[in-house]
């Protein structure tokens, strides 16, 4: 069976992976399901012989892997970013199952780059990393023992992505492109600057305003034109009268 072309637009992003063997095993999991874009954010050891050994024939995925200095760099250009989380976080974005996330990811990936983000083996994604995601996904594992090896989690999500990509295509009448991650982050920086300037946000005591606003706009799934409109409003607010 041929690889669905939508999978070419899917990035698997591993953040600060401690064990090189997990990187290799994740590459193997990806290749078995037709995924090829692997992004590594500050891995502890890479390249490494153990990664090649655990890749077991998926060394081409390792060879093409991109090592990034930051999560933001890994997500540049992505129109949908889904973070993997084992639990609901305080003030976090919408939490969906892996299957639901895969369906949405494949739909967007038909025309635009998307990313699935995995955290460290021990603690998962940090709050700073989660806040850069627009949605959270979880694997509905046994609640009495929900711990999954990193590569196993990548395998589950890769399988769900492939199944979603092979499913009959549902026609979507939406033709407006979503804003990229860098465009959305630029909007949030502009928004925060404006709120500080007009006195609505105290930079010395920001509390939870920006995380709440991020959650609000994540639900909206901003389009490129919408970001342009919002930034135009912010610019107008900053213009002296």
Determine Rg (CA atoms, Å): 19 Å
- N-to-C order of helices and strands: EHEHHEHEEHEHEHHHH
Low-pLDDT stretches are none
CATH fold title of the largest domain: Alpha/beta knot
Oligomer: single chain
What general form does the structure show? globular
Q: How far apart lie the N and C ends? A: 63 Å
| Number of domain modules | 2
Please count the beta strands (DSSP E, at least 2 residues each): 7
Output mean pLDDT: 91
Q: What is the makeup of the main sheet?
A: 7 strands, parallel
CATH class of the largest domain: Alpha Beta
Beta content:
5-15%
Look at the helices and sheets and give the structural class: alpha/beta
Question: Can you give the helix content as a percent range?
Answer: 40-55%
Number of helices: 10
Name the CATH architecture of the largest domain: 3-Layer(aba) Sandwich
Note the main attributes of this structure:
single chain; 241 residues; alpha/beta; Alpha/beta knot; Helicase, Ruva Protein, domain 3
Can you tell me about this structure?
This protein is α/β, with parallel strands linked by helices and 241 residues long. It has 2 domains: 5-166, Alpha/beta knot (3-Layer(aba) Sandwich); 181-238, Orthogonal Bundle (Helicase, Ruva Protein, domain 3), CATH 1.10.8. It is 45% helix and 13% strand. The chain contains 10 helices and 7 strands. The protein has helices at 20-32, 49-55, 59-64, 71-75, 98-109, 127-130, 150-166, 181-197, 209-220, 224-238; strands at 10-15, 37-41, 66-68, 80-84, 95-97, 114-118, 135-138. A 7-stranded parallel beta sheet has the order 3-2-1-6-4-7-5. The radius of gyration is 19 Å and the shape is globular. The mean pLDDT is 91.
């Amino acid at each position: 069976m041929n690889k669905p072309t939508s999978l070419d637009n899917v990035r698997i992003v591993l953040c600060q992976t401690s064990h090189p063997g997990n990187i290799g095993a994740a590459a193997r999991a990806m290749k078995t399901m037709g995924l090829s874009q692997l992004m590594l954010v500050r891995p502890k050891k890479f390249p490494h012989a153990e990664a090649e050994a655990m890749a077991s024939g998926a060394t081409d995925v390792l060879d093409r892997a991109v090592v990034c200095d930051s999560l933001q760099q890994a997500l540049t250009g992505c129109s949908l970013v889904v973070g993997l989380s084992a639990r609901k976080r305080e003030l976090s974005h919408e939490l969906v199952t892996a299957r639901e996330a895969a369906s949405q990811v494949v739909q967007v990936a038909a025309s635009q780059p998307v990313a699935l983000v995995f955290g460290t083996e021990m603690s998962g994604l940090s709050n700073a990393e989660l806040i850069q995601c627009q949605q959270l996904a979880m694997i509905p594992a046994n609640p009495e023992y929900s711990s999954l090896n990193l590569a196993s989690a990548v395998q589950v999500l890769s399988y769900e992505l492939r199944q979603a990509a092979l499913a009959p295509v549902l026609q979507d009448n939406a033709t407006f492109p979503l804003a990229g991650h860098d465009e959305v982050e630029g909007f949030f920086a502009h928004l925060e600057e404006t709120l500080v300037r007009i006195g609505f946000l105290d930079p010395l005591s920001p509390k939870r305003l920006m995380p709440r606003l991020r959650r609000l706009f994540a639900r909206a799934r901003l389009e490129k034109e919408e970001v342009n409109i919002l930034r135009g409003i912010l610019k107008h607010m900053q213009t002296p009268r």
